[in-house]
Amino acid sequence: MSAAKHHPQGLTVLYEDRDIIVIEKPCGLLTIGTGRDKTRTVHSILNDYVRKGDPRSRNRVYIVHRLDRETSGILILAKSEANKIHLQEHWQETDKHYVTVVHGTLALKSGTISSYLAENSAMRVYSTTDQGRGKLSHTEYVVMKENRGLSLLAIHLLTGRKHQIRVHLSEGGNAVVGDSKYGTDRYARAHLALHARSLTFTHPVSGRRMAIETGIPDYFTRLVGSISPNESTDKSRELIWGLLPPT
């Protein structure tokens, strides 16, 4: 069969070898389904892909981490359980950068948002002063551009809690565009403007440090206009292009 027939439909493969596969997930697609959810997911699409149309194949992929259905961007999947476990055990060493468009402008054009995050029975994440209930979370940001009452931010995710970026920005009065869970606005029916733009990680077999990145989604530039490195400060250029080292 042709190679095109085995292309993972709806996904962009950014890197692949015998041990891992790195893809760009579009918004609206689940990373992995539940027992009751039979829709197509990143997991099911890539399992079909690595089996190359052979239902008897024992090839499969293993989820290392997840992105919310509404979030687009980079995902790493392993081709063996051992590689999955290795990547997860070393996940704190992974450097994660996002871009997002939020409502309004931020008084501080760069900074770090820190709080203890907890989740209630309605599965809504919130900040709490109760250190026993929440997990300490840090989100570093730099404003890249302000236009049309919106701001484009580069995000360095220093911790990886559920809905962390969305909650930290919403609680500061700058909800992510399109976020119907943590913000209500005229963009609520549009795509969520949150994209996992770059990951730097250690390969589970070779030990090589790898950096994978994508461009800024077209949807973001339709919201705030085009962005170039010349429009930003040195620090924001480094952060948005995924060059700022871990702190």
From TrEMBL:
> InterPro entries per the record?
PsdUridine_synth_cat_dom_sf (IPR020103), PsdUridine_synth_RluA-like_CS (IPR006224), PsdUridine_synth_RsuA/RluA (IPR006145), RluA_PseudoU_synthase (IPR050188)
Q: Which PROSITE patterns match?
A: PSI_RLU
**Is Metal-binding tagged as a keyword?**
no
A molecular-function term among this protein's GO annotations: pseudouridine synthase activity
* Organism of origin: Citrifermentans bremense
Isomerase in keyword set: yes
Keywords from the named record:
Isomerase
User: What family is reported?
Assistant: Belongs to the pseudouridine synthase RluA family.
Q: Name one GO biological process term.
A: enzyme-directed rRNA pseudouridine synthesis
Q: Under which name does UniProt file this protein?
A: RNA pseudouridylate synthase BT0642
Residue limits of the Pseudouridine synthase RsuA/RluA-like domain?
19-170
